[in-house]
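Input/output pair, single chain:
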Amino acid sequence: MPTLQPTHPNPRRDFLKTLAAGGMAAAASPLSVLAAHHKKTGVKLGYDNFAVRAMNWMVEDHLKFSEKLGIDSLFMSDLDHFKSLKMPYLRDVRKKADDMGIDIHIGTWSICPTSTTFKDKWGTAEEHLRLSIRVAEATGSPVVRVILGNRDDRGTEGGIMARIKDTAKVCRACRTQAMDAGIKIAVENHAGDMQAHEVVTLIEEAGGSSYMGANLDAGNASWTLEDPLENLEIMGPYAVTTSLRDSAIWTSEKGTTVQWTAMGKGNVDWVKYFDRFKELCPNVPVHIETISGFNREIPFLEEGFMNLFPDMKASTLSRYLKWARQGTPREPWKAPVGPNADRADHNKDLATQEYQKREIEESIRYCKSIGLGLKA
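Output:
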């Protein structure tokens, strides 16, 4: 795989340093939230199963947890957490969810055959997508979430546009099946792979919104040098599902550092976000995907980094830095270590499970406090 650090100099480096200057020390306190914003929005609320990945739950466990949380929708964002992919079993899952009053959205991973993240566990990329569409149809999901890959794909031969074309080709091959099933293929901005405008490019390259859509991920936007609200403005009109989380962000030595957090604990103005979300994304549920507790630096001041973003607009980066300057550094979360060495791993696993459950429970409470969700 080609290196992420091209050897030729980046001509925008001095400009980027100028944009970042002054923000390193002059960071404001985290954005406050309006906890008393109780007016119901009419937006369905749920969570992404990856939020509690340490539990290793199957879909039945997630449905029980969803019922406990009092939410409207469950996003099963991979195929591994179904006991079977046979139609009778999947239809039974659908009935259980219907009886609980819970919608199901289905997702899977990379369908880009040339991505660094693609795996052939489910066959070729096209076979993988066709299987996922069948699972979505059987469970009553209106969407199947897919991804291209991650930031490493920006440094592969041909860059991200080559990977976009390869992914769009797979989607076009499955267009008739998706349309016959009434399923939208929802492309996510995932782990630094695509900016919002590039997701839109993929959707249009694949044939447009008749069977394509977007999975909004506000947290991942922070890894592609985007303010989540700008990301929403661009992707929102295409959105058919979501995987949202809050982000704490601050300027740091090499650019910015991001720590994903529980909802309401970061620097995103969610009241403003969801006011606009209602306008741009009617009938789209909000799924929370907390992946909290670690810090990741986005080193855009390093030589060569911005060559990975050849179409980056200065206005987008400027808006991103303005957002980043609102934050202050935070320590990452660490699982407590027990006194007995032979039980350390067990204690760490339990602590991680409890941490993930607390993060999603706190996030759901916060979202309900600002009016999301149909249930009490």
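The first strand starts at residue 45 and ends at 48. Residues 1-13, 21-37 have pLDDT under 50 and may be disordered.
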